[in-house]
Amino acid sequence: MSKRVPYEQVEETIRKAFIAVGMDEDKAATCAAVHAESSAAGVESHGLNRVPRFVEYARKGWVNLDGEPRLVKAVGAVENYDGQLGIGVTNALFCTDRAMQLAREHGIGCVTLRNTTHWMRGGTYAWRMAEAGYVGMNWINTESCMPMWGSVEPSVGNNPFCVAIPRENGPVVVDMAMSQYAYGKLGVYRLAGKKLPFPGGFDSEGNLTDDPGKIEDSMRILPTGYWKGSSLAIALDLAAALMSNGMTGSDMDGAGNGSCGGCSQVFIAFDPDMFGDHDENQAKLDRRIDAVHNARPEDPDRPVAYPGEHALANRERSHREGVVVDEVVWDQVCSIADGNIDVVDIASK
């Protein structure tokens, strides 16, 4: 069951939960805002629902609450940092902002990060770049949690990738894992007692299924685009590891630091007006999006939308009417905020 809770109450409750586990107040406020905004945008799998798992990881020492990005090397518009297993959200925000600073100086900025932890919603950082006026790209590698095409066991990460285009009438933002559904989204559907809109993986007998619980049990999530998704996943994994001089997904498999513990990340910001006029560029973007909106829909009641359009609508409604939360997860986070930090992550199996 789900309900709507005022945005400010969601953010404040998450902030208290992070303070309860030992995070300092500034970082707690920053992370709470990111988690609450993710849920507000309709990505509760990496917002409120991830709070119990973060608390568990912090208690186990898999996240270094005092870790900060440390500069390893800088070459022109490219910088490399060691995340020291710090908080994934604050590490990623630092790198996003630094990439934009480099782009202001050079037209393009690239920051790579190794030895960090889960960044939660990858789109957070792409949206941040787009809303600041930059074309943004960012991606992460993960431990092996998805079968390569032709395999029956996890052999590559689902390695989320994001790209964002700054548009004054609404940024265009793609935020996607290389699996048809991320594990967090499977958990959202399972907790709600719902089937997936489309088949998302295989059950333990090898049958394609829309049952999220059966896919979680088998760990045979479906790569996006079948062999294409798993091919892109391995390429993103290797590129992130090389560019950051960090670990690959298979290196993480034996590290014992939980999901994404010690992962590698890349953040790229690009000045979209470096070679063109700003107003002309915006008009070009609007013409292209108009063509998307004018495409004849399969269902007349569901107009065709550009990537990120639904997230904007969800965010506006959540701030106006309250954030949709799973009641069981909400009660658990409220309990953590009250100091009961002995938690079991019910959003994942």
From TrEMBL:
InterPro entries: Mal/L-sulf/L-lact_DH-like_ah, Mal/L-sulf/L-lact_DH-like_NADP, Mal/L-sulfo/L-lacto_DH-like_sf, Malate/L-lactate_DH-like. Signal peptide: none annotated. One of its GO terms (molecular function) is 3-dehydro-L-gulonate 2-dehydrogenase activity. It comes from the Bacteria. It holds the Pfam family Ldh_2. It is an enzyme of class 1 (oxidoreductase). Keywords: Oxidoreductase. Its EC number is 1.1.1.130. Gene3D superfamilies: 1.10.1530.10, Hypothetical oxidoreductase yiak, domain 2 (3.30.1370.60). The keyword Thylakoid does not apply. This is 3-dehydro-L-gulonate 2-dehydrogenase. It comes from Bifidobacterium saimiriisciurei. The lineage of its organism: Bacteria, Bacillati, Actinomycetota, Actinomycetes, Bifidobacteriales.
